[in-house]
Design brief:
alpha/beta, about 35% helix, Alpha/beta hydrolase, AB_hydrolase_fold
């Protein structure tokens, strides 16, 4: 599957951005231009079932395969958020970016007894502006506009692969390429034990103080500062 892409910049370096579930490439509205200003040619994808990309069957393996089919050039840095971090981690051995950044990725959980309810994601598709603003008090109006637009273009069937199961993902045994893991404060996906495992496995792990799960929208400045040495 060829994914829809959005681009910024024309620099000598290249960057890839992969969004999380219920979102699309528009979520990177500030990150893309910021990287372009730093000399990057930036490509952000819409995962299948999101944005303007085709629909189809949905699974982590398929999200990863689409990245490989679409992103044929080796990137200097690849950044994936949440589900995008999971998809990137499953494709990184084939994409082989020079560096990878995983933003609060769906790998494991800080609460092993917590379960995923796909129906909750489906209900989120119909969130109102007021509800989004209440859940995300640090967002500005433009971020809320983007959230409403991306929800409208999102296929809720993408959440069905989650089913009703423990919130457990795919904690990597080791990094395939030099890798940074950015964590929310606190992260409801990567708990202290998993963060310690990642550090021992030679991932660099950084927490963005006070940031929620969508780090790049909750604290853009903190997000960019956390990338120092990686971009």
């Amino acid at each position: 599957m060829q994914l829809n892409t959005r681009t910024w910049g024309s620099g000598d370096k290249s960057a890839v951005l992969v969004h999380g579930i219920m979102s699309d490439s528009r979520t990177w509205r500030r990150v893309g231009p910021a990287l372009a200003e730093r000399g990057y040619r930036v490509v952000a994808v819409d995962l299948r079932g999101h944005g303007a990309s085709p629909r189809g069957e949905y699974s982590p393996a398929l999200f990863a395969r689409d990245l490989v089919d679409t992103l044929t050039e080796r990137a200097d840095v690849a950044i994936g958020h949440s589900l995008g971090g999971l998809a990137l981690s499953l494709a990184v051995d084939r994409l082989r970016p020079c560096r990878a950044v995983y933003c609060d990725p769906v790998w494991a959980t800080s609460a092993p007894d917590r379960r995923v309810n796909a129906a909750a994601f489906v209900e989120g598709k119909h969130a109102t502006r007021e509800h989004i603003a209440r859940l995300n008090p640090s967002w500005d109006e433009a971020d809320i506009d983007v959230e409403l637009a991306t929800l409208a273009d999102w296929d809720p069937d993408t959440s069905h692969f989650l089913g009703d199961r423990p919130l457990l993902g795919f904690l990597p045994a080791h990094p395939v390429v030099p890798s940074l893991v950015q964590l929310a404060d606190p992260s409801f996906l990567i708990g202290p034990e998993d963060a310690a495992h990642l550090r021992k496995s030679h991932f660099e792990v950084r927490t963005v103080p006070g940031a929620g799960h969508t780090i790049h929208r909750d604290d853009f400045d903190g997000f960019m500062k956390s990338l120092e040495g990686w971009i």
